[in-house]
Amino acid sequence: MLKHNVTDRKAWGIFARDQGTDEATRLNHYGAHPFYLVMEQLPNTDQTPSGNMHGVLLLNSNAMDYSFTPIPSLTIRTIGGILDFFVFLGPKPEQVIQQYTWLVGHSMLPPYWSLGFHLSRWEYRNLTRMKEIVKRNRDAGVPLDVQHADIDYMDARKTFTIDPINYAGMKDYFSELNADGVRTIIILDPALFDDQVSYPATIEAVFDTNELQPWNWEETGSNYTLKCPISALDDPPYRTKAVFRYDEILNKSSRLSQKTLCMSAQQGEIDLNTNKPKYLHYDVHNLYGWSQTKPTLDALRAATGKRGLVLPRSTFVGSGQWSGHWLGDNNATWHEMKRSIIGMIEFNWFGIPFNGADICGYFNSPTEEMCTRWMQVGAFYPFSRNHNNRRTRDQDPAEWSQPALRAMISALRIRYILLPYYYTLFYKAHTEGSTVIRPLFHEYPTDKATLDIFLQFLVGPYLMVAPVTDDGARTVQIYSPSSPWYNFYDGTSISVQSQFVSVEAPLEIIPLFLRGGAILPTQGFANNTKLSRMQPFGLIIVVGSDGNAEGDLFYDDGESIDTTASKAYYYATFKWSLKDTQLTMTVVENNYREISNLKLDSLTIYGLNHTPAVIYVGGKRFAPSLRPNTQIFEIISKMHVILHCVYWLLLNLFIGNDVVGNVQNLSRENTLSTTVSNMNEEPSFVTTRVPLRDHVELAIDYFLPTPTGRFPTILEITPYGRGPNKPNRRFEARYWTQHGYAFVIGDSRGTGDSGGDMVFHAREGKDGYDLIEWIASQPWSNGRIGMRGASYSGENQWYTAREQPPHLSCITPSTTPARPMNEVPYDNGAFLLQWALLWINSYVNIVLPPAGTTHPNPKTWLNHRPLRTLDVFAVGRELPLYRTFLDHPTYDDFWRAIDLLANSLVNITVPTLAFTGWFDGTLTGTIGHFDEVRRSSPRTYDHFLIIGPYMHTSAPDGGYDYLTNEPILMMGDISIPKNALLPARNMTHAFFDWCLKDQARPQWKPTKFFVTGTNRWMTRDVFPPPEAQERLLFLTSNGHANGIQGDGRLQWSSADTTVTDRYSYDPTDPIIVDMEKIPYHLPININTMIDRKDVLVYTSDPKIESLTVIGNIVIELQMSSSARDSDLVVELMDVLPDGRSIKLGSRVSSQLRLRYRDGFDQEVFMIPGTIYSIRIQLGAIGHTFLPGHRIRLAVMSSLFPWLSANPNTDGSIATDMQQPIVANQTIYYTACQPSHIRMMVVDNPVFDL
Fold first, then answer.
1. Whether residue 607 is found in the same domain as residue 716
2. Is residue 1012 part of a domain?
3. Does the chain have fewer CB atoms within 10 Å around its N or its C terminus?
4. Residue 145: inside a domain, yes or no?
């Protein structure tokens, strides 16, 4: 493809050679890439493209040639080798390239500085002359990032030397340039041209070129005078002009070894069977440059610690993983300028997007006009370098007249402004395998006209370059594909589509066009990237035919190695909606913060039909201006949005009227200033009752945006009340309606104003289904509905989604318990007494009888029997739901019906987003839901889980107080760093925009979790991270582990001792943890709580190195009891150097009621004195024990009134009237009965930056 002559049956050779280009004789240039593309045509048509394409790779390193005989027949001939055919089915052009590069390796991410302008020539003659040329260009205002030194800097062309006379002081000069932001590249020839005896490099290193270690074996002649034997290797019987260099004067072909090694040369590692190298040069000649590239890059990176750049001109399949490609020695002709565009595109296909030709030509001398036009097109090469031969005139930009110089600088200036766009394209090439430069048919594959266009090209999908490539031309014929295209310079649109049109092209400009629907990141101009990277960013917004536009920005430090793998970068997506007059920015990765003024300062808008009267950004008002004599609107150097401090940005633009909008610069601090002040202003709403399938009615309020229309809807069903003083309604309704959503909030069945009885989730799924389908039928609904809410409201979402209502599109169920016997109301069989009483009596919005006499002091509850009637004694009234809980003490059909995990989430196919926290009592359930829905869902990567250092009420808001929006920076006794806070509402907004408005899918990993201790975030595909490995920490003692001063120890090796530890648990004297007074669910110091004789305490030695634990913790205890039933309760702690024991874990405690040790569906009582292996699930933690800290475990049998005190009898939990008895508990440590902690340890953790 791309205008090569394939109609005359001449062969195109593939055999790497150091020779000039020659279109007439098909001389192969540097490198070998046996890969071609085929555009498929519709059947029975006159070559009408179907839009589908496939690619073919014949992976073979031997000499080959390709010829068409006739079209579309292709003949490939080779002189040997192993033939591996690969076919890439696409079907779209860009997909073919992505599939090809997936196989051969994605391209390297070039250093940012390498995208600047390069200056070079072979033979400056001396350092003084080089300095003069560099100075005159810098003085003239030519941007310059890289100065090259060709091989004339060497001493007599001896590699690794510097000419001590002509280039004396070169190292110091290069250091000066580097300090000014100009990098230097030296050119090395991979062969050694010198035969002088005094050559230190050959003495100090082994190059296999001396007589003792010859490159060629004896039969091939002297090592220094190449005399190859007459053989079928250098003179194979199959010969073509394509593969063999042809001498037109002597009318003969030279041998394969011309300008290279003998084909019989043996190379590579020694074959132990033959004691000779394994390979013949005949077979590996085309791999010569390829084989040197990666070792060179490895050495460069090892020496500098930086990303570096290797730039060969001889490459092979897969070279792009490590290098760019210089297109080789060309001629200063208009024809060669055109061919450079073909080569640039083709090497993008080959997976080497960082490529470019010698601007203005290497051989011969260009005219001023030719060099001007070539500098203009070369300004858009991925690799932009002006380079020429020693026998030609100077052709650097400052050499030419002022008009030519201004034209060249103008083109380079545009390049520098667009470098963030280029760099983002290179990021995508590096991570996705896409092209940076592409032909038009990549974007318009069904348009037949684009197949013949090769001079007009695209930079990414959004920038079209139409260079002038003919002498004297001042107009250029361009093809306008079927999209809106806008003139880069004045903003006017091309009046036609899918047609050719003539555009003006005076010498001072290169025609450029922007595609409608694009957002391109820019950065302020400076004369090198060291300075330009300090400039503010801008966005070019090009409104599409539908009024929308999108784009993205990738940015890192530009030189570190593997920033993509380590997530040490910044990546944001942008969405523009003219309908909503909004620009939305969503930050996907925010791990690059080295430049403090990484800020967005300007906007440039193409394609607006009306003048925007005002733009609000971050609560600030800006008046855009019309760029003189253009149709381009812009805000310049005014916005000051600090990008790395913002996770989400909303911009409002108002056309024709100066209206104050809902505009938020959503770093969380700025969000508060724009939303809290309006929080008391209640938006208007409609109250109604929705009939359900069983004729019960739910009470709801719905809120609509203005003006009227059909909207996506966000629904919350809550048992906590929907009225005007409820935070869920007051905070959420206003926010979502201002962002184009209808918002509906309803009372759960049996709560608030809704009818029916509350039966703890029994009908939540069916009720949710009915309410969603009712919403979808309303005239204000567009039929797309998402759900929000946390805790019970979050569970409602899971139940509803499991019913598969047709109009449910996504859910955001945060902080959700999963299993009724594992979290609430029973926590591993132990009844959560205080939670049940408080939640039912105080939090759930249900109608209760008037309260009588109450006994709020939990100590008075201890002697009350039976537990079933404690509600009246404690809170003064009967609580039916409390008694229902107690009526089902085992895992029976009542609980089984509402157990989400037991019933599987296989029916849930909608995307999910959930927040939880390390101090959220429902952490285990929230993780369980995430794991199960990913395991059973066909949309594995559409489910997201975020775990922060949050408690139950603050997790859904990313660590902010849900009533005040203030950041919670103290959690119990530990401080929470600001980097732990997340803009959860804004992330939820982006999630809803994706699944309800078809905007960009959030580029999040499935899990994101904060590791306390080190206070760093991690993102992974799964939780716990796959690198976490299980380790055992063993319990032992000298028999006196009671209390903090006891001798209980934790150690990494198993204890083998007959020593045991004992304590006595008296139900009438339990450990008291009154949750209404002290927040025991938070990371607080619990030394006072555990320093008792009825608590066993085990402590490790102080940590010498950090220990990071991420994942589930399981405590396995070998124990016996004197009672038939009892409880085991454990607490895990981080002991600080000051002696405080900070509780870890998401729940108040972790425990097991021992009658349920064989399962919650049955009660199996113990035989006193019998040793049992007891497993207690502590749940997940994400924590680093820092040096000097210790790990501590406490074992006990009570935590009242959070847990009902086990009387150590075998009666019913609800109705037992027996007197409690003392239980004597024993813990064992033998090798056969080890008591231990199972934890998931991450060695050398890799955190987000």
1. no
2. yes
3. N
4. no
Among 895, 775, 920, 965, which Cα is nearest to 1160's?
A: 895
> Is residue 715 assigned to a domain?
yes
- Asked whether residue 933 falls in the same domain as residue 981, the answer is yes
Other Cβ atoms less than 10 A from the Cβ of 203: the count is 10
Structure-token match 């991925």, residue found: 382
* Tokens 């909207």 -> residue: 711
pLDDT reported for residue 30:
79
Q: How confident is residue 114, by pLDDT bands cut at 50, 70 and 90?
A: very high
Domain that holds residue 1145: 1029-1242
The answer on pLDDT for 332 being more than 90 is yes
Looking at residue 565, which CATH number applies to its domain?
2.60.40.1180
Angle made by CA atoms 545, 551, 554, in degrees to the nearest 5 = 170
Q: Are residues 1227 and 1170 in the same domain?
A: yes
- CATH label of the domain that carries residue 1168: 2.60.120.260
Could you report the per-residue pLDDT of 565-591, keeping only the tens digit for each?
A: 988 999 999 998 877 667 888 888 888
Type of residue numbered 463: L
Total of domains in the chain: 5
Q: Is 825 helix (H, G, I), strand (E, B) or coil?
A: coil
Q: Does residue 175 sit in helix, strand or coil?
A: helix
Q: 10 Å Cβ neighbour count for 634?
A: 17
In a domain, 299, yes or no: no
Q: Which of 667, 687, 715 is the last residue of a domain?
A: 667
* Whether residue 796 is found in the same domain as residue 933: yes
Of 208-222, 260-274, 291-305, the range with the lowest mean pLDDT is 208-222
Instruction: Give the count of beta carbons closer than 10 Å to the beta carbon of residue 245.
Output: 20
What is the structure's pLDDT at 253? Answer: 61
3-class DSSP state of 421? helix
CB under 8 Å to 1099, separation ≥6 — which residues?
Answer: 1048, 1049, 1050, 1135, 1190, 1191, 1192, 1193
H/E stretch holding 279 reads: strand 276-280
Model pTM score:
0.57
H/E run at residue 1031:
strand 1029-1036
Q: Is 514 in a helix, a strand, or coil?
A: strand
Residues 6+ apart with CB under 8 A from 259: 17, 18, 19, 245
Going by their DSSP bridges, the two strands 384-386 and 117-119 should be labelled as parallel
Closest CA to 453 of 470, 436, 465, 435: 465
pLDDT(150) > 70: yes
Q: Are residues 1186 and 1228 in the same domain?
A: yes
Instruction: Check residue 958 and report its DSSP letter.
Output: T
- The CA distance from 606 to 608, in Å, is 6
Distances (CA, A) of 685 to 698, 726, 753, 1040, 1072: 16, 15, 16, 66, 47
Which of 667, 689, 706 terminates a domain? The answer is 667
- Residue 613's pLDDT is 58
Residues 569 and 690 in one domain: no
Rounded mean pLDDT of 811-823? Answer: 89
Q: CA dihedral in degrees (967, 970, 975, 978; nearest 10)?
A: 0
In angstroms, the Cα distances linking 512 to 494, 518, 650 are: 11, 14, 29
Give CA–CA dist 317/84, Å, rounded. Answer: 12
Closest CA to 717 of 800, 783, 774: 800
Q: Quote the CA–CA distance of 465 and 446 in Å, as a whole number.
A: 21
- Residues with Cβ within 8 Å of 561's Cβ and at least 6 positions away in sequence, in order, are 301, 305, 306, 307
Contacts of 327 (CB under 8 A, 6+ apart): 29, 313, 340, 343, 344, 347, 355, 356, 357, 358
Compute CA distances 789 → 134, 748, 877, 939, 1204, whole Å: 63, 12, 30, 22, 30
| pLDDT at position 359 | 98
Overall average pLDDT of the 1040-1055 stretch: 93
How many Å apart are CA 441 and CA 422, to the nearest integer? 20
The answer on 1206 and 1103 residing in a single domain is yes
Q: Is 531 in the same domain as 608?
A: yes
